[in-house]
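Appendix B. Chain record.
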Amino acid sequence: MKKISVLKSIFFASAGLVSSFTNADTLEVISSGGFYSSMEKLIPVFEQQTGHTVHLSSGSSMGASPTAIPNRLDRGERFDVVVLAAPELNKLADKGFVEPNSQRDLVKSSIGMAIPKGAKKPDISTAEKFEKVLLNAKHIGYSASASGTHLEKNVFPSFPPVEYKVISSKAEKVVGDRVAKRIAEGQFDVGFQQISEIKPFTGKYGQVELVGPIPAPYQKVTIFSAGIGKNTSYEKAANELIQFVKSPQATQIIEEQGLEQIKQ
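Structure tokens predicted for this chain:
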């Protein structure tokens, strides 16, 4: 009798779980690289809790690459949730690709410097030491997205003309790929990207080492935000995903990726 009661409890609990997932939706989500690794880890937890299915795509926040998020939207691709650098997300809202006033800030992200694993770790603790590392580097890689745009437009040109010419001659913008991946392949001895994009290539089995965040005044903290795609059929589920990413449950996963969660 007791065994039957237990089986009944399991049955009704399972039935309740199935019932709660009857309104489950399939979300198309795209994230720029700065938050992509975090989203990869968060989605399975979200799917298990809600019954929703999430298809995750990646693309840069900006740039000429065909995979850049603005370019994909321009071509007519549609997404229920879009995650990228906040200024670029606001531009997408102005263009009508994102529901107005749906933007929510998710995380703060810093630019990091990476080197091949096993290479001598340089000291970039001050602006002067950082400048010396740039001048001595043989081949510099930088992102085509938010971090690289900052370096290309604000950091490199701030050097005196002769030094700027030296740095520019050995600096390469990486389009449609991760800078850390190219470092692992031996193409750069120094590379710059969001720390969260470098982290997946580090660790025991990685081929890249994170030196650390670049120093002031050269550092730029980027806010990554999420918005709901225009005319989505799954606004409720999209909001659920964004709320989950901002919840305390997501904090540890996000911080492990080198990001700071924005909780407001």
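Further analysis of this model is presented in Appendix C.
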